[in-house]
Amino acid sequence: MHTCGTLYVVATPIGNLGDITQRALEVLRSTDLVAAEDTRHSGQLLTRLGIQARFVALHEHNEQQVGARLVADMRAGKNVALVTDAGTPAISDPGTWLVAAAHAAGITVVPVPGASAVVCALSAAGVDAPHWLFYGFLPARSSARRHALAALASLPYVLVFYEAPHRILDCVTDLAETLGGTRRVTLARELTKLFESIHSLPLGEAQDWLEADPNRQKGEFVLIVEGAPAADADEDAVRLRDALAVLLEELPVKQAAQLAAKLTGLKKNAAYELALQMRDASAGHQ
Predict the structure, then answer these.
(1) What's the predicted TM-score (pTM) here?
(2) Does 1 map to a domain?
(3) Terminus-to-terminus CA distance in the chain, angstroms?
(4) Are residues 10 and 111 in the same domain?
(5) Residues 186 and 207 in one domain
(6) What's residue 263's pLDDT?
(7) What is the pLDDT of residues 36-59, one digit of tens each?
(8) Are residues 77 and 35 both part of a single domain?
(9) Radius of gyration of the CA atoms of the chain, in A
(10) Which pLDDT band holds residue 129 (cuts at 50, 70, 90)?
(11) Domain RsmI HTH, which positions (predicted)?
(12) Do residues 211 and 245 make contact, with C-beta atoms less than 8 angstroms apart?
């Protein structure tokens, strides 16, 4: 009976070569093919680790075409190791399509865990983050980036982003203007490398801090941003009541409630129910 090969999803170091795991070394030495985001980069890495491998380029522009061939190879019995330039494949990196296709073809997918920039940054940031949202890379264009951030602005979770050095200044500017300058951000840069730095400060001060030393803008970034403060239910009720008190003097209940909801950002149903209560209470006093 013919046996399919295995797809190994192998994490590689994000900087320091010492972070390669023993298991990753064993898999990379024994596998038939290594599917790599950049074969030259991964070739240099494996050469430095003393490993010879047969490479296949698998990146965002050819993943489905090459991935289909790799699935056929695995169905024929070959073992494939999937790696990216650094860290864990399929986490803001190519590989997701190949992994899904392997599952669909009944091929066993085996994760070989190791370095991940997002987990590395969170562990050393000193941020209390029992709940966090990993967004990955924000859109490159400022308008699209601000639109994406606006959708995240009210979430109470710590927000984690990746950013490239040539966009870091524009990114922190948009973060401060969209989320507010008082939230704290941790800028984790060049993790596990020679010039690694981890620095926390209010978002409103991030641009000046980066511009104070051009070296601070170099390298790949992980940005960890404080979540939105928990809404105070009493404060929300006071804001809604104050808005309705003015609007009900001039408008019918339904219109007053709709406008109050827009002004406060609260739900229309809550505004309408409170407006009815306030109208009835006012009528009772007349």
Answers:
(1) 0.78
(2) no
(3) 89
(4) yes
(5) yes
(6) 87
(7) 999 999 999 999 999 999 999 999
(8) yes
(9) 26
(10) confident
(11) 235-279
(12) no
**Residue partners of 128: CB distance under 8 A and separation at least 6:** none
Q: Which long-range contacts (CB under 8 A, 24 or more apart) does 69-73 make?
A: 70/7, 70/33, 70/35, 70/98, 71/98, 71/101, 71/102, 71/105, 71/107, 73/5, 73/32, 73/33
Give how many domains the chain has, as a whole number. Answer: 3
pLDDT confidence tier of residue 268, bands split at 50, 70 and 90: confident
Q: Based on the fold, state whether residues 268 and 168 are members of the same structural domain.
A: no
Domain of residue 160: give its range: 118-225
| CATH number for the domain harbouring residue 188 | 3.30.950.10
Domain boundary among 175, 206, 225: 225
Strand ranges inside the chain, DSSP E: 6-10, 33-36, 55-57, 80-83, 108-112, 132-137, 158-163, 184-189, 197-202, 221-225
The residue from 96, 115, 134 where one domain ends is 115
Q: Residue range 172-191: average pLDDT? A: 96
